[in-house]
Amino acid sequence: MRNYAWTGAAVLLAMATAARAEDAFLTAREEAARQGPEGVTLEAAAGKQFRMGELIRVTLTFRSTVEGASLDTSAANPWRTREQFYVDPREGVSEPLRKARSYVRLPRADGAATVVLGLEARRVEVDVNAAERFDQPGKYRMYVTSARAKVAGNPPPDGLARRVVSNVIEFEILPFDAAWAQGEAAELQKIVEGKADAAQRRNALRRLRALGTAEAAAILARQFTGEEEEEEYEVMAGLLGAADRGAALRTLSERLVAPNQPVSSRFLSTLQGLDLMSRGVNVRGGRRVGAAAQDGALQQERDEALGKYVDALVENLPRKNWPARAACLVALQQMPAIGLDRAPDAKLAEAMSEVFEKLTRAEQVDVLRGYWVRVRTPALLPSLKVLVSGKQDTSEGGQTLRNWALVRTYELDPAWARELVLEEMKRPGQALQVRLAGRSELMNLLPDATLPQLDAAFVELVKGGDFDETWGGALMISRYGSPAILEEMKKIFEPNAGRWACSLQAPMLAYFLRVDEGYGIAMFRRCLASRQTGCWRTLFREVGRLQWTPMLEKLATESLDDPEADIAMGAASMLGVRGSAGSKAALLAALQRPYTPGGTGTTRSGQDSAVARRGAIVAALLNAHAWELSEEEVAAVTRIAGDETALRRYKSRMRDGVGVTVGVGGDGKAIFRLNSPDGYESLEALEKRVAMLPAGVAVHVEGKPWEANYQAFMAWARERGLRVE
Asked: How many helices (DSSP H) and strands (DSSP E) are in the chain?
């Protein structure tokens, strides 16, 4: 009898426990619903039964009874879903991508596609499998919260997006059916390897991702082609979120060396993530404050995990067919972007020259613009010369490619390319070419002080009337124009002085300052006084970066008390970057003088004018290129400024050291920086500034040990006995 009583009690206890769990689930939903946007409803609907490994698609129906509501209808991204799924019970349910997010570089969020939300139903389909995997059969219930709906004037109290909450839906997960899974994989393989359109392929990839079998992983791995970014992110999600990551790693490792397998940077990043996860490496360990040693060890783990696959790929390159080899070489040049920054490999550069002509136009531009430092080799000259001297492609992409090819050809064979560069500079539409190649590439390519033979062509561009041509001509004149065209340029400039667009006015003023400083200053003053445009606010910065002269420095010191705070701030900024050592006294004196702002007493950005001016002067004094403040001067700046900013920065510098960057960007441009985004023009200029630092200050050098400038700076620092870390 007692046994029956005990059994009955157990049943009642189990029922009570289940009821409490149910209450907790529903209570949590009700609480979430109260926090949602007012007047917006969400109804979720899905099938009643799904096989284990089947894609679970939920239709979300949104409505609003209030005005000002909108809905983001863009497709869900497997990495940054706008929905959260609350499942009960949680046993047998896992989040496949939760851990993976810490191991790979995440894709950008999908752009929003916003529509007005009203009483008319708006539907969005989402896949539960992107966030939840059901590893056990059974009956489940679920509600969905979504951040897609927004109501104007109804901001959330905590700064986070208000999430609308759905009804509760119920469904059953059936046991795994091996025969069905095999048939599903075969069907999906035909789709992704056939002639399906993009939407069909992406849907098939999502179904493969949900299927989760070893066969599905093998099919997914073959879809790493480097061609469709969004598709590759689906493949990454499927492999990194696989239930058996070890099997996914083995499959991807086999594909890495397959002769017909293209390898993209995302392919390699996925291999790295799977390797780290399968070995249980804790990538979060080094994120704790003060865990520098752990950060270093973690980076070494990352480098080793990626490096061994890179080595295997390089070893097997000769066995790859041409299309696959081309894709692999592009990925290998992109290694710094995913964390492995090795020295450029001459053999890989030579291999790139063999496949360069087989790359797409976009890939060729990326190689010449973003990865040039890693592929620079004379072996590319034949291909580059064909691009710059052959029949011209007048499309925007074709012009961009030709322009970069011309820049790189000149670097490798300046004698051969010089006449082509000169011809390009005077060609109508040159401004477009300058913009597409980057403002400074063609403009600073030739070492000549002036190019008198192109004066007339430059002037014609400025007079052409087309904005792009005028801009291009003005840039060329600012850099290469000779004094012979001064009078003609005066006639062009003066009638519109102070009314020119900023991007046209600055280079012309820079030309005047270079060839006739007195006239240039007179025109600069006229433009600074004009209020026809807003260019006066940034005139010191825009002109000062192009041309700096003693008279412009004198004018900048005089402008530190200008009632227009934007002018005073621009003057202070450029004195810090371009000013001589004598500018320090002028800035210190200006900081001490009372300042009376004009106008509304605020800057264009809405700051208090006096506060903004003071801050700009302090920043110029602390980050100057031509001097280092003594401790006494820092103390004086602190007293005058009325806050502790300057003193805190100085103490931090003395305690923690300064950061120096010496390197070369992917585009081949040298980078020289010291605790500031404003770079130095040369290694010598940087060394001169570092030499001014107080004795004993640590210098933290960032750069690549294999780069010549880095090696030269380190040798110089060691010779001077600097404390380099």
From this structure: 30, 17
* Token pair recorded at residue 568: 């005073």
0.85 exceeded by pTM: no
pLDDT of residue 438: 41
Ranges in the chain, pLDDT < 70: 1-22, 76-81, 105-112, 154-161, 283-296, 337-340, 392, 394, 396, 427-442, 465, 643, 666-668
pLDDT of residue 11: 45
Query: CA distances (Å), 58 to each of 61, 98, 139, in order?
Result: 10, 20, 16
Burial class (CB in 10 A: 0-12, 13-18, 19+), 44: buried
Would 391 be classed as within a structural domain? no
Tell me, yes or no, whether 101 and 8 share the same domain.
no
Q: Are 671 and 664 in contact, with CB atoms under 8 Å apart?
A: yes
If you search the block for the tokens 């993209």, which residue do you land on? 264
Tell me: do 198 and 100 sit in the same domain. no
Q: Look-up: residue for tokens 């009376």?
A: 596
CA dihedral 649, 655, 656, 657 (to 10 degrees): 80
Last residue of a domain, one of 309, 342, 368: 309
What's 262's DSSP letter? -
Whether 620 is covered by a domain: the verdict is no
Looking at the fold, whether 146 and 57 belong to one and the same domain comes out as yes
Using CA atoms, how far residue 173 sits from 55, 91, 176, 218, 333, in Å, is 11, 13, 9, 25, 45
**C-alpha distances out from residue 315 to 355, 442, 662, Å:** 17, 38, 31
Q: Cα–Cα distance between 212 and 231 in angstroms, integer? A: 17
CB atoms within 10 A of CB 364: 22
Closest C-alpha to 345, from 311, 370, 322:
311
As a whole number of angstroms, the distance between CA 557 and CA 576 comes to 11
H/E stretch holding 702: strand 698-702
Instruction: Tell me which residue range forms the domain holding 190.
Output: 178-309
Task: Return the amino acid letter for 110.
Answer: D
- 222 and 191 in one domain? yes
The string of pLDDT tens digits covering residues 185-235 is: 999 999 999 988 988 999 999 999 999 898 999 999 888 887 787 888 889
Q: Please list, in sequence order, all residues whose beta carbon lies within 8 angstroms of the beta carbon of residue 35, skipping any fewer than 6 positions away.
A: 156, 162, 163
Co-location of 149 and 249 in the same domain: no
Residues 203, 305, single domain; the answer is yes
Q: Which helix (H) or strand (E) holds 209?
A: helix 198-211
pLDDT digit string (tens) for 419-432? 988 888 876 554 44
DSSP letters for 37-104: PTTEEEEEE--SEEETT---EEEEEEEESSTTEEEE-PPPPSSS-SEEEEEES-TTEE-TTTTGGGTS
| pLDDT score at 5 | 45
What distance, in Å, lies between the first and last C-alpha atoms of the chain? 80
Same domain assignment for residues 23 and 150: no
Q: Is residue 433 a part of any domain in this protein? A: no
Look at residues 122, 148, 174 and tell me which one is the last residue of a structural domain.
174
